[in-house]
Amino acid sequence: MARIRDRTEDFKDVARHTAVSLGYDESKLAAIMASFIIHKPRERSSFTKAALKTLESIGALEQFILNHRKDYVEMQRTTEQERDSIEHEVTAFIKTCKEQIDILQNSINDDEANSKGWLGRKGDNSNADTIAHKHGVVLILSEKLHSVTAQFDQMRAIRFQDAINRAMPRRKLKRETVSKSADISTPNKSDIRELDEIQPEPLTVQQQLLDDETRALQVELTSLLDAVQQTETKMVEVSALNHLMSTHILHQAQQIEHLYEQAVEATKNVELGNKELSQAIRRNTSSRTFLLLFLFVLTFSILFLDWYS
């Protein structure tokens, strides 16, 4: 048998001579020869492009949070409006990334629905592996987004805690001011009573109205401060609940991934079971044929022996 000869070098020489005869310059000739060694990268699928774009968006979000961390946490650097603007931008960014991940998940569900038949998958194992790989990509993106949102939740908790800490001394100071003003108002009333004989009656009524308005304003401000403090406390609790909910959602995503793997394995087991059933049916048919043939031969032998005897 003749030995197989590698003609790759001969093909390269022919390609070189043909390129030179066609008048190619050195750059084109080098590109042609390099194409034999360096293969062009495969064109990425739409899912891969979308996943890379989502990953870049999450990376940009993380970089934005790191760049504005001090501006958001340290109260003396920026105003409340600027911090609210940063929070609004981060929230919009997170929503956009979540929508992109949902689009990827929906595309996987569509591919999975199109590849399913009556009892399982129509395609081979490569299709199932591709879908499982896509599920893994979506899970990694979800975990990455969850870690970034957890960082921002920590920053938000620090901001709300600082706001509560700043509100508590003001509340105590306000109460002390109200108590002092109440104590001071008592001698003022006695002085006013002593001066009632000297001052005219309209001035006394006007002073009394001003005192009543001042007390009402102080009570209103105190109640407003209490409401603000309760709102800030509830916001901190809501932020903690959001973080807890995102953690549970991530855990559910992992459970769904595990269930998906079990479903793929169950589908393979069903296919193997169908094959075993088919083989068992064929074996049963062959055994019946053999049994009938054996009975026929046995009957014929008995009849022959009876006739012979």
UniProtKB/TrEMBL annotation:
Keywords: Coiled coil, Membrane, Protein transport, Transmembrane, Transmembrane helix, Transport
Protein name: SNARE-complex protein Syntaxin-18 N-terminal domain-containing protein
Sequence intervals crossing the membrane: 290-308
A Gene Ontology BP annotation from the UniProt entry: protein transport
PANTHER family for the chain: SYNTAXIN-18
Lineage top rank: taxon: Eukaryota
Subcellular location: Membrane
One cellular component term from this protein's GO annotations in UniProt: SNARE complex
Bilayer topology annotation: Single-pass type IV membrane protein
InterPro entries xref list: SNARE (IPR010989), Syntaxin-18_N (IPR019529)
Pfam families: Syntaxin-18_N
Coiled coil location: none
Coarse class of the protein's main subcellular location: membrane
Family named by the database record: Belongs to the syntaxin family.
The SNARE-complex protein Syntaxin-18 N-terminal domain, residue ranges: 5-86
